[in-house]
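Researcher: Re-running this chain for the archive, since the previous output was lost when a drive failed. Same request as before.
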Amino acid sequence: QVQLVESGGGLVQAGGSLRLSCAASGRTFTSYAMGWFRQAPGKEREFVAAISWSGASIYYADSVKGRFTISRDNAKNTVFLQMNSLKPEDTAVYYCAARQGYYSDTFYLKVRDYDNWGQGTQVTVSS
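Model: Regenerated structure tokens:
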């Protein structure tokens, strides 16, 4: 198990940028596959981006492809989500998620694939 703490959310104008961070505790973080999800009011939690333990495998939702970048620093037990060209429809609570990947370069796209979640960080994009 790992504990996850997100940070970096806030209020930004459309077209702006934010960088989210997810700090993980636990010595086995390196072996975990990581993901970012988001949930807007009244909507289901949806997939945003995923990265395998090594960073070799990455996948994005179509809605963020070309604008968001997921990365990780295993030495610092941290995963990042760089968000550029933000749109009002990106407004949501963003969650970091982890799943033990046993050093497999696999990524996971579904909420039910993950068993460790952070508390979320609010991102609000004004028009």
